[in-house]
Specification:
The protein is mostly helical. It contains 2 helices and 2 strands, in the order H-E-E-H. Helices cover 60% and strands 5% of the residues. Strand 1 and strand 2 form a beta hairpin. The longest helix is centred in the first third of the chain and has 33 residues. The chain starts with a helix and ends with a helix. The mean pLDDT is 88.
Amino acid sequence: MKKLIQKHFKKLFYLSLIGLVLVFGINFYVKSKTNFLIFYSENKIPKNKVGIIFGAGINGDKPSKYLKDRLDAGIKLFKAK
């Protein structure tokens, strides 16, 4: 019985380890491939005619905190042309 538990524990441990490596590996890959598309300054954003503001939920009749922040950033960029 004890060996059976140890055997399954090892399998679970290795599967968990593989899962963690996959999650962090995919995250690193996506970040490295899209890093050039992330801007931290409005001066560095290329000029565009169109912008997309993704939603983040509405609480009652008010935007959620995340949506409000996104809308405020969009308004700021619109005013900066």
